[in-house]
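Entry — protein

Goal — fold tokens:
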Amino acid sequence: MKNIKIILIISMVILMVFSNMGCKRAVSPKEMYTYINNPDKGLFLSKTAGEMIFSVKYLPAEILAYREYKYLKNNLSYDSILNTYVHAMTFLLRIGMEDTDGEGVDPAKEIASSYGAYSTIINRMSFNMKEYLYLRVGGEKITPDLVHFESTVEVKNEKVFYVTFAVPGSFVNDSSNSIDIDFVFNDLFFGTGINHFLFRSSSIRNIPKLKL
């Protein structure tokens, strides 16, 4: 019963996004990237905790589908690809650390006392990150369906994760509900505790439509 309630809540949030697309202005992919990267739009949230820098960005289904459509060249139509994303919510989590020269340092190396300790941290990030992430939506706690750790070296040595919360598409709900989404990172790596990133329902509803 509880799982059904969770699915209903997330489904309502997702349906709010797509039910409002008909009356929205359409933007190019470049404009969409600019939009979601603008902190004023409420889709890119960041905070500092001591030397640590955390940011979470909501990635609309349309931009995920466009990226796959453009770069993977799998012969599927854009609409077909989009249908695989519309019943999920995906966020991009970045974890970094400040330094004096602005180049950035690897936060995992900074806290590791040895190479073995560093390997342990990376292993936990690679395979156990689901344990430290969840959403709070309408009073319910929702755990990720998938967490992908980007193992490539990122700019400023950030640790980067794609976090996806999947929802079946068989539920139809009232899309007029306004439900804020609290993305939570329980940081047991760097000792900063529980970090909240609150995405307002209005910010998600106002995302423009993508024009190819």
In short: Residues 2-19 form the longest helix (18 residues).
